[in-house]
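Researcher: Re-running this chain for the archive, since the previous output was lost when a drive failed. Same request as before.
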Amino acid sequence: MKIVFVTGGARSGKSAFALREASGTTGQKAYIATAQALDREMQERIEKHKRERGAEWDTYEEPRDIATVLSDIKDRYSAVVLDCLTLWLSNVLSAAGGPVEDTILEFAGELSRLKKGAVYRGDGARVFIVSNEVGMGIVPENETARRFRDLAGLLNQRVAGIADEVYLVTAGIPLRIK
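Model: Regenerated structure tokens:
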């Protein structure tokens, strides 16, 4: 299994790049969505994206337990897109019963174990993990926003360290940085 980490700013083309690359693989594909349909606009957005992906994609909606989903589906797909880690982090923060740093480290550990032990279908099987790069702007003015930025930075660093390939997407243009 090959892990491809895709990061960049909001609306930079990260998801489109990951989907385009994953669509180039032969076989059934899975999309793990961390977004929650908490309002009408988000419900419409989610349904639109499902239609755009088409029948060759199975969708798993999981706001928090993404490591379990990855583990459960590891033998069924030639490509998986997990979109997105920063939404997942927001969901984890909202439901936090313990230190979020521990949850990040647990996810990174599970991802590393899955990478070593998973046998996805096909020789070129890949898992694309999408995340926002939130640390390139100004320092947030409040503690909660600074904490989120810091945790997102930790999460992105851990996943990038595990990934086989890392891309930074800006204005729809992917740049391979690892």
